[in-house]
Amino acid sequence: MTENLDTDDDLDLAPATPTRRTSKLAIVGAGAVGSTMAYAALMRGAARSVALFDINTAKVEAEVLDLGHGIQFMPMAEIVGSDDISVCADADVVVFTAGAKQKPGQTRLDLAGATISLVSKVLPSVVQVAPNATYVMVTNPVDVVTYAALKISGLPSNQLFGSGTVLDSSRLRYLIAQRTGVAVQNVHAYVAGEHGDSELPLWSSASIGGVPLLEWGGIGVRGPLTSEVRDEIAHEVVESAYRIIAGKGATNYAIALAGSRIIEAILKDEDRVLPVSSLLNDYHGISDVCLSVPTLVGRRGVTDQLEVPMSVDELAGMRKSADAVRAVARQFGY
């Protein structure tokens, strides 16, 4: 005899599988830097989900299509994009790349007015849909823009910071490696201060394979890093962006890789030491300005700023850099 079953009472239905929360990166601006940042983050597997926002509908949709068509060749990820700010909702990290485009001959500080105006229009809307995200400002002049963005957004200083001199420090290490013939991975040196003309290499704390850089005697036929050689390297670090912009119109590959490294440090909670631009409070006597110094970066954003020992000249350079950035910020009411 067949027993009748009341399906509502007797069937043991399996519970719905919960949606797994994945890391989300939102990038504001689908220009050369923003789209390349998305590409670099996807290729490195820095985030499981990447969202692009731009007011140029055709541009952002085209970038997402182009990136999406290559997803099968990348670590597991998804890419979405829109001209609607809601695409950034619930992001873990927001990278802000939108800003005025730097033209040949322009300094980064020349861009301040137009970029701050854009940030003031867009950033509050992004914070509204992603209030818990860590914000990384990548648009120039990054130190002035980061300071203004903190005031505009009202976010705490650990939650919003700039990409700073992470790229400049990479350029410095590359040039030192080229001069010495040592792998760039064995060069440890930072550029501090403004991401711009007043930035300075911290020679006194730099090292090559554990050897203090100022004591480097050279290996093989390569000579020591004399003060003249160091000055040439420092000049090249500052000028390299201008050379790239003059030749191809924008810098995008290296800054995208530098940015994706910052993103990884946040999402993986690495407490990685990176020379990002954050608000200083009595750092070697310097306060109320955003500048780059070696800083711990992790899930909480920026935490401790390392008070790296500096020479008298380096301290003077940091103060000069602070004055330059602070003066521009004050011009725009920040």
Describe the structure.
The protein is an alpha/beta fold and 334 residues long. It has two domains: 24-162, 3-Layer(aba) Sandwich (Rossmann fold), CATH 3.40.50.720; 166-331, Lactate dehydrogenase/glycoside hydrolase, family 4, C-terminal (L-2-Hydroxyisocaproate Dehydrogenase, Chain A, domain 2), CATH 3.90.110.10. The protein has nine helices and 16 strands. The chain has helices at 7-10, 32-44, 57-68, 112-129, 142-153, 166-180, 227-248, 253-267, 312-331, and strands spanning 24-28, 49-53, 78-82, 93-96, 134-137, 160-162, 187-188, 191-192, 200-201, 207-208, 211-212, 272-274, 277-280, 289-292, 295-298, 301-305. The strands form five sheets. Strands 3-2-1-4-5-6 form a six-stranded parallel sheet, with helices on both faces. Strands 7-10-11 form a three-stranded antiparallel sheet, covered by helices on one side. Helix 3 (57-68) links the parallel strand 2 and strand 3 (78-82). Helix 4 (112-129) crosses helix 5 and helix 6 (166-180) crosses helix 7. The longest helix is centred in the C-terminal third of the chain and has 22 residues, at 227-248. The protein is globular and about 55 Å long.
